[in-house]
Amino acid sequence: MYWLNIKYNKPESERFTTLNPALLLETISKLEQRIYERFPKSGLLNVCREMLTLAKESDALSQRLKPPIWPLRVFIFIASSLLIGLVLWASFQIVTHFSLTADGLPDLLQATESAINELIFLAIALFFLVGMEARIKRRAALQALHRLRSIAHVVDMHQLTKDPAHLLSKSDMTASSPERMLTRHQLARYLDYCSELLALNAKIAALFAQCTEDEILLNSVNDLEQLTQGLSGKIWQKIMILDLAEQ
To answer: What predicted TM-score, i.e. pTM, was given to this entire model?
Structure first.
């Protein structure tokens, strides 16, 4: 597999457990050349080129998502400190301006109730601030995964009319029938290229899985992998039909 990471400067336990983006891009580039040499005028070639572009963008994005966003973290720290300082100041005012006398007790109870409400809003605000960086990174990654999901369906559309049945039995063509100019060998290669594109699509998505522990993002990557596996399974059924027919 071209995309396996075999960098020897990594620990022994990580040499074959992470994807190497450079080798993944090389694999897609080689697949593009293979499609060009066999089907230079096919739409599948343009799809592969688009996937190569998406792979480069996804690699760059996954690298940007790894390090912390320091300006945002500084802003969150300052905003959180101001909120906590405001609460401490309000608490100090309550302690110093109210006494536990009969006259001040109602005002103290009212102020305490207001303070509890403010603490609830403070907790919500802190939760929002602390999770802001993760949400920003998640949104960017999910947008990239959406594009990968869309191009997977495009690959499936290209193989949709590549039916091996017309090669195995004579059938009447209608005016609306798609053109079927491929030989048995060409059809097998075309379907195989589609299957490879779907597999590489899932590997591009996996770049995001190895740079985050976000559960929502990991579930989206798994969903995309299941989608590509299902689409690839339909393609391999056609390839198996062609192989069995030759026997």
So the answer is: 0.76
